[in-house]
Amino acid sequence: MRQTNGVSNELASAMSPYLQQHADNPVHWQEWGAAAFAEAQSRDVPIFLSVGYSACHWCHVMAHESFEDSATADFLNKHFVSIKVDREERPDVDAVYMDATTALTGRGGWPMSVFLDHAGKPFYAGTYFPPQPHHGLPSFMQVLEAISSAWRDRRDDVMQAAERITDALVQQSQGGESANAVPSETQLGEAVQLLVRQHDDQRGGFGRAPKFPPSMVVDFLLRHHSRTGDPESLRLVELTCTAMARGGMYDQLGGGFARYSVDDAWVVPHFEKMLYDNALLLRAYTRWWRVSRTPLAERVVADTVEFLLREMQTTEGGFAAALDADSEGHEGTFYVWSPRLLREVLSEDDAHWVEGLCEITAAGTFENGTSTVQLRRDPDDQDRWLRCRRELMAARDNRERPARDDKIVAAWNGMVIAALAEAGAAFDRPEWVAAAEMAGDLLVTTHLGADGRPDRLVRTSRDGVCGVAEAVLEDYACVADGFIRLGMTTGSSVWFDRAGVVLQVIVDHFGDGEGGFFDTADDADALIVRPRAPADGATPSGWSVAAQALLDYAAITGSWPHREMAGAALGFVAGVAAQAPRAAGAGLAAAEAWLDGPLEIAIIGDSTDPRTQALVAEVASGGALSTVYVQGSPDHDDAVPLLAGRRMVQGSPAAYVCRFFTCQRPVITVDDLRAALH
């Protein structure tokens, strides 16, 4: 713990790697909590709230320029109480003050810099502030001096601003989003047509640079194609997923995706690798393969899983939150190449060949004559490419590696569990399913019940030790989704039971009384506003994932109340389907599942019987995406309601295809099952 003027920087004992990165700052950082607010009130100074995350490049820049500067720190320490928050650990705090920042400035991002009164009400906000005035931005010290002066000399103005902003946030958080019915077929079709108009048919993706991976929109389009056969939906997926997988945003050597592309052609990424992006994209490419059987999708799935298991899996069996963008003090250094660097590893002939194949040029596509690695076409000599790739990877592994944020986030691990389980089942890779189950076991043993309440989750852990932050809606929803998928792929009903426990917390503690959800539980620590976000952000809305999990659980258990709750929650989609479908991809995907039933499939047979395995494989790898399925032995005990009363047919394994809790006649052949699914 660093001591300065008798006051301590208190971040050394924090669990968050991001907070620990600031433990040696001369700034007297405190964690979010009552003690910090009490100190601000006692000293009669405002609060400086700084929010970021470990893989954030500009967070590192501002830390180096300002928070490591003794003069800046001295001013902060004298005139403010400074609180540092990891947005990944406290998404509730981040959401409230990001809304405030956006309302005040018209934009948001990280690092986020917000100034609060003693009650936590914001009165001024921004993002990155430079050490010197730059491009119309005041310096950080100018901001601090102005805020301190206003607090001292114009307190009434400050407090009035805080009240106005808070009142606006409260009004913004009021309900109304779920007042409509679940979108109709017509409304979903209109959403697709709007996406067609917004799609970049030349370079893939939506909108202009920077381009983010539209994972949730891809899932919606694939489900729409699966349900309707619409070729336009699949065309958009093929163009966008191909462009992302061929460009520099995808790690052509080591697998896995970076956060986003800074250009509109997917050439130069923002190099941080986030767990949630890779989980969501793994699931998207698995589903693209299921409906298309394209080899590119299969390659991306295999390489992304390899990346997750190699670089993101922790010793406890969970998956780390992120890899930093920076190494050796610069962004992207670990990943980029030049002709000279290639020749340090490869022969002249191989280096020349890779230059052309991967668009590594003397001028460079990135910075300082370096290039990202692209693979715009399949190699004409696959064996040669695999050999060169291995040699380049071995050399790259000797470089200084980007730092890893190794905290376990419950929601993001739920996403990985679902993605790994689905991919493992689709590609018949039981070791992938086993990795998913190991992560599920970690959530059960470490995150579930850790605070003394057996049904409640904590959001983060590290090295097997739980943090103190309470889980939010996305944690419960994504964990439930992962557990349901594990129940499908392992055949173990215990995962369905665990999903039911987690979902019941959503039912009991997160409802808004109007069919939707709040992001925090009704018994969580209160903030100035109780956040609620039906729209997707970098991750799918917890609201929409909860609706999907409730719908799937209803199909498995026959629980009509769970289905009704899912439908009520999906009412918000109708309001945005024809206006902003890119903001509601997860909700639109769940609405597709609602219209499709979803299909409920019970498969009865000995799990070692090749006939049973063939039926399961058809469901797990086929193109009918809005399906839930359960597996039961010939002498199963009806513990899972969807299995109740289902038996083999004349000694043969059988599949029962149901929709809306009504089943067709059982089928015993793969061909008949395939026909029943379509």
Question: Based on DSSP secondary structure assignment, what is the total number of beta strands?
Answer: 20
- How is the CATH topology of the largest domain named? Glycosyltransferase
Summarize model confidence as the mean pLDDT: 94
- Rg, Å, rounded: 26 Å
CATH-defined architecture of the largest domain: Alpha/alpha barrel
Uncertain runs: 1-6
How many alpha or pi helices? 25
Q: Roughly how much helix do the residues carry, as a percent range? A: 40-55%
Strand arrangement, major sheet: 3-5-4-6-7
How far is it from the N-terminal to the C-terminal residue, by CA?
A: 63 Å
Strand fraction equals 5-15%
Total individual domains: 4
Looking at the structure, what is the overall shape? globular
Helices and strands: which structural class? alpha+beta
> What characterizes the major β-sheet?
5 strands, mixed
**What is the top-level CATH class of the largest domain?**
Mainly Alpha
